[in-house]
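Troubleshooting log. The previous run stalled partway through. Resubmitting the same two chains, unchanged.
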Amino acid sequence: MLAPLAMSLLPKRPLHLPRLRTYVPEPSDPKIFWFNSERADILQDVVRRIMERYAADDSVEFVIGDAAYHEIRRLENRTDEAGRKGLEYWRGVIRRVGRMSSEGKYETLREISMRMAKDVAGNFDPRVYKFAARAVPGLLTGVMNPSRLMRNALDSGTRLDELVSVEGPMEKLRSLQRKGTMLLLPTHSSNLDSLAIAWVLFREALAPVVYGAGKNLFTNPIISFFMHNLGAYRVDRRVRARLYKDVLKAYSSIMVERGFHSLFFPGGTRTRSGAIEQKLKLGLAGTGVEAFARNRARGVNRPVFFVPATINYALVLEAETLIEDHLKEAGRARYIIEDDEFSRVERWVAFFKRLQHAESSCVIRFGEPMDPFCNPVDDEGRSLAPDGRVLDPGSYVSRRGTATVDPARDAAYTRDLGHAIAKAYIKETVVMATQLVAHVLFRRLCRATPGLDLFARLRHRGDIAVPMEELVADVAQARDGLRKLELEGRVHLNAPIRKAPPEQIVSRALDAWSGYHQKPIARILGGSVIAEDPNLLLFYQNRIRHFAPEIAGPADMQAAIEIAAMKGVR
Amino acid sequence: MSPPVGIVGGGAFGRALATAAARVDRSVISWSRSPRDSDHPKVTVSSDLASLRAAELVFLAVPSPHVPALCHELGRHLDGAHLVVHVSRGLVGDELETLTEVIRETTPVRRVGALAGPLVARGLAEGEPGGGIVGTLFPEVAEAVREALGGPTLRIYDTTDVIGVELASAFVGLVTLAMGYAKAAGFGPGTLSVLATRGMAEATRVIEARGGSAKTCSGLAGFGDLLAAMAEDGRPELDLGRALAAGESLDRAAGRLGAYVEGVRIAEQILHFGARNQVQTPLAATMAGLMNGTLNKEQAAAALMRRPTRGE
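Second attempt completed without errors. Output:
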């Protein structure tokens, strides 16, 4: 009761700490510590790039009109003071634009671009960073037990250390961060992802990153405070204006060009289905390719490294809302979910309480870094050909010896990169007990309902009972299949399930689910396990559906083929 | 001055490409494993893959089974500045891996494409009016192909649906084989038309399952190419189909034809892909059955006609 009350008393506007003494970065500090001193230049660069973009273009009036039209539509329903002022501004723009001279239009474009750039640009306060590094683990673990919040807040992150584990070429990543600009591209299944990644970067002595955070995240005042002061820039998906997208892309590209390590979620939003994201558009991450080309075209040789990463949870905080959204096929309509479990403190408490009992409840696995053209890189950051030869990445943005910036070409490289990252996601997936058990149970449901479509199957709530010994045997067999795939380097298993007896894997999964999700996913009744919530089973099993036919026995093969071929899973 | 055009493969199609490029005044480096004489003063013949380093655009004109190994070798001499376009109608493995994917995996080249459509070696070499389509995500690849081959007698269109172009092209081989068989088995125009149309419908299902666009099938890479094959452009698949219908064994007929027939392997590959991905592939299943001897003519026709009909 107290926690929601306390949350409601926190201010809605972003907090900035008073500037008592300017922090002077030291040479050993990460690049982002210089952000505030470069911020004004960055904003000017963004505006300059927008002006260049439209300099040789007769669509300036259209772009201004498009921005005004979309902003008026967005603001019309707002009743607050800021919304009213915004509406007034844009109505003024649309009234004047038709009568403006050419110079006037360009001046207005400059003004709007700066306005948008300022809204997007983040802030970095080293004091908040240092505080956050100490306090975030405590705050997170404190949520598990609010009465110990203060003690936890000041405590070190030992508990979180146990909960969040890290795998991958960490030494190489540390080395590459010193040699070029690193773009982290994690999978996205929870709003906790950015917190978990930020904590892990700190713990692993990796530099902090800047990233675009959806404005919906700023609805949680604590998270909002950290976002505002740790270099996150705001991405407002409700703003539909083409110019806003240009500003965002320019901002992102300039940050990478200047050497700020960045983080992007290439899936865009959280995976609704629970599946590993496979249709990646990369969006802003594509600006990494542009940034590399722009630097090369002006003779700057600063490598850019793309690092895929998977964030694997035993439990997903927002699983119920996400799968419901997926199944309603309302993902697009409800692109911005503001009322999910992430915004409800009592769900956080329940979530972390379950995590207390699980070892490595979250595994973050970093994949091998690659250059913007999908080539692997060595420890020195040099691009490597398939035969091991060192390549000049600049050759990819050159034609007949001259490096150029070419949006169509770079869009093609970005698409290739999307495929490479998607492949890496599958390979770097860490299978958790909950996913494995959910898969086996869901497969049983498919086997028992031949010929039915997905939605007909999902109506079979509580109809499928699997005798415990059969479930254990199936889990053992599926786990062995996954171990084989792991030996081939095609997937990874969370350490506790690699060797645990299968009955323990089943009990771990049932235990993790029990008490967190509002309805039971599965329960034991008379020596059998009843599949109670096919929706959530689907959500958790979707993570490993790609491997379904390869880990199925003959009796389950048809069901496994159907699972692997399920349409509309994204 | 434009850099030379590289061509890998000294078969009929490779030589025709070399002649077409030389006709628009481009110098050509033509690689083939066995030494041969040049057909044209602008064409330099080499058996050293390293010589292709000097080229910007390299065409791969070798049968699909040779592409992976050859690309491993070729990749040692190329880098990110090169553009590679293949002209093969084949696919690799049961996941229907396309050759542009193979090139990307086995070489450092990323700017890749597939040239397809009703391009016939003789027509290319003789400068007969015609056209083709290049599937590529990279505008400079389409531009380079046009520069190297396009001219008053050759129109090169382009599309970004690379996978659609490669799969449509491969399917044409399979449908051509089926058409050769059906024609020789005595089926009439109505049957042939249904076979061709439904065969290409099967192609669109597979293309969509692999993320391509169904529309590509109705263009030069699909129906355009099939029309050329039906107009007897010398496609070995047509002859192979006829030979099978006449009762000749697959090995014997393929051996007699000499050339590698891409359409033979494709039936099995598509069949496996369809089974795993829940895509209906009746033509591939029937042709695979005919080629491996598990179906005869009557059984094949009955298997296709027994299928339930539904909305087109």
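Takeaways: Chain B touches chain A at residues 3, 56, 72, 75-76, 79-81, 104-108, 110-111, 136-140, 160, 275-278 (CB under 8 Å). The mean pLDDT of chain B is 93.
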